[in-house]
Design a protein that fits this description.
By secondary structure, the protein is mainly alpha-helical. It has one domain.
Length: about 220
Amino acid sequence: MSRHLILPLLLVLAGSAEVFDIMTDIQDLRVPDSTACIQEHQRLAECVKPHATLINYVMSTFKETDVYNIGFMRKALQISKNVPECLGQEIQCPVPKFVVFSLDTAIYAGEKLYGDAFHCFINAQGLEITENCVKSVSRGPSSIFWLDTSKFQTSKNELIECVAKKLYGVPSCSIGRIVSLYQAGSAGIDWMFEASQFDAGEPTGSVFSGDKYCDY
């Protein structure tokens, strides 16, 4: 799974700590050769810069077990809120638009995960459950399901059902908490698909809406 999901989503984890420089990463992003997109890219850098030191620290020290540290994760979630508030919604170019989509997804999923549902997540060892279900659905590292557009929705449903079944029966996992984790997970998986399209140079230009997960 992509390391870069840690900042926007904080759900897919880095295997080990390393030196991280968010400003260098932004500088290296592909930017269309147009005045408007260059200006939006500069605006993105300006919005991130005040938080760069904290972002670099979080990204460089992050460990898998930190997903169970609710205080740490809520601080990281606050970073996700600051940047899109600065950028605003009136953006058109692929890179900043994808960043806003990612951070809006992060805010939605993070508030679901690190709200009341956290009691279920930590007691059920939700990270380990999810990792095992991803391996089951992907059926090996060569067939990561969110890279296959033809099978994405079917595999996504299979993964979420796998996780949900393992949560049932855990005393702290009420139906309401399972639904919240279901919503957070669904948004996160959709982000993985969008990220794979973006990395392939085929950004969809999607705008995040939590309403699509209200029926779960």
